[in-house]
Specification:
- The protein has 172 residues and is mostly helical.
- 56% of the residues lie in helices and 2% in strands.
- Strands 1-2 form a two-stranded antiparallel ribbon.
- β1 and β2 form a beta hairpin.
- α2 packs parallel to α4 and α5 packs across α6.
- The longest helix is centred in the middle third of the chain and has 14 residues.
- The chain is flat, with a radius of gyration of 22 Å.
Length: 172
C-alpha cells in the first residue's frame, strides 16, 4: 500500500539461491554448505523460506553470531579482575538461546545481584569493578544509545547533558 501511495515499484522477489546466501549470512554469519544449498534448492516445499528462517533462528549458529555481537557491546572478557568470566558468558549464551526478550535481558543485567557463579548476569558489574564512571557511560551508550562520556570533562557539546548531570547520574 505504501509503495502504491508513493508510486514506487518494489524490487522483484530474490531468487532462492540469492535468498539462501543472504539469510545464512544475516542470521548465522556464514554462507551455507553445499549440502545445505542442495537441500534448499531441491525442496519443492512452498514455505521453505520461512521454515529455513525458523531453523536458523533456533540454531547454535544464531546463538554464536548474536553472542559475538553482544559480547562486543557488553565488553565481555573470559577473565575479569580476579573473577572468571565464564559464568557471565554462559548466562548470555543461555539468554540468547532462550530468546529472552530484550527488556528482560537488560533488566537482569542492570539489577543483577549476588556472586557471578550464582548469577552470571552479575558479570555485567564485575566487568567494570572499581570503574563506576566507565560503567555508567557504557551502560548509557549500550542501552540508551547516548554518548555520555564527553560530559565527564565538560558540558556535552551536542547533547543536553551537562557535566553536573553526568556526575549526578554517576552518584545515583
Amino acid at each position: 500500500k505504501g509503495y502504491e501511495e508513493h508510486e514506487i515499484t518494489p524490487n522483484p522477489i530474490s531468487s532462492d539461491s540469492l535468498f539462501l546466501r543472504r539469510i545464512y549470512l544475516e542470521i548465522i554469519g556464514r554462507i551455507p554448505s553445499y549440502r545445505e544449498v542442495k537441500a534448499f534448492l531441491d525442496s519443492p516445499e512452498p514455505a521453505k523460506r520461512s521454515r529455513l528462517i525458523d531453523h536458523l533462528l533456533n540454531s547454535e549458529g544464531y546463538v554464536s553470531r548474536e553472542f559475538n555481537y553482544w559480547a562486543d557491546l557488553l565488553r565481555i572478557q573470559s577473565r575479569m579482575r580476579n573473577v572468571p568470566g565464564q559464568p557471565y558468558i554462559d548466562w548470555l549464551k543461555k539468554s540468547l538461546r532462550r530468546n529472552k526478550p530484550y527488556d528482560q535481558l537488560v533488566r537482569e543485567l542492570i539489577s543483577a545481584e549476588g556472586y557471578i557463579w550464582e548469577n552470571g548476569a552479575a558479570g555485567y558489574y564485575l566487568r567494570d569493578a572499581g570503574m563506576p564512571l566507565d560503567h555508567m557511560s557504557n551502560t548509557f551508550q549500550v542501552f540508551l544509545g547516548t554518548q555520555l562520556v564527553c560530559a565527564q570533562c565538560h558540558d556535552h557539546p551536542y547533547d543536553d547533558w551537562s557535566q553536573r548531570d553526568y556526575y549526578e547520574q554517576a552518584a545515583f
